[in-house]
Amino acid sequence: LMVRVARTAASQVVTDANADLPGTSKGFVLMQNQRSFAWSQLLPMTRIPLAAIDTSIRWSQVLYGAIKLYLPPKNIVVKNIGRAPGSLGS
Question: Which stretches does DSSP call E strand in the chain?
Answer without folding.
Answer: 25-29, 37-41, 46-49, 59-62, 65-69, 76-81
